[in-house]
């Protein structure tokens, strides 16, 4: 899927891990799809002294931070995470309801 996305949108997406190749693009980290990896799910807490929550963000928040905005504004410890969900609702909910049609992987294998 990462390679297919990269092929379809080469100016926006990259599947190669080299940081020099990723600059200014969305890196689809296919290597995280493995049973031994520890990628956490949405709303999970990170195992740190002061745990932060994995919170869905709006694109404008990501863009603002990428342009030099304060990264602490998108860092949510438990009380702030709860307050955000109470105020904003579940920003992840559309992902659970959106129906997707995945491309035929045969297209990718043929190349």
Supply the key terms.
36% helix; 111 residues; 6 helices; mainly alpha
Please outline the helices and strands.
Elements: H1 2-8, E1 13-14, H2 19-22, E2 26-27, H3 59-66, H4 78-88, H5 93-97, H6 105-109
Parallel strand pairs: 1-2
Can you give me a brief rundown of this structure?
The protein is 36% helix and 4% strand. It has helices at 2-8, 19-22, 59-66, 78-88, 93-97, 105-109; strands spanning 13-14, 26-27.
Walkthrough of the structure:
- The protein is mainly alpha-helical and about 110 residues long.
- About 35% of the residues lie in helices and about 5% in strands.
- The protein contains six helices and two strands, in the order H-E-H-E-H-H-H-H.
- It has helices spanning about 1-10, 20, 60-65, 80-90, 95, 105-110; strands at about 15, 25.
- Strands 1-2 form a two-stranded parallel ribbon.
- Strand 1, helix 2 and strand 2 form a beta-alpha-beta unit.
* Poorly predicted ranges: none
Radius of gyration over alpha carbons? 17 Å
User: What's the helix-strand series?
Assistant: HEHEHHHH
Task: Tell me how many strands there are.
Answer: 2
Helix content: 25-40%
Biggest pleated-sheet summary? 2 strands, parallel
User: What is the arithmetic mean of pLDDT?
Assistant: 87
Strand content: under 5%
Distance between the termini: 13 Å
* Helix run count: 6
The gross shape turns out to be: globular
Q: What strand order characterises the main sheet?
A: 1-2
Structural class: mainly alpha
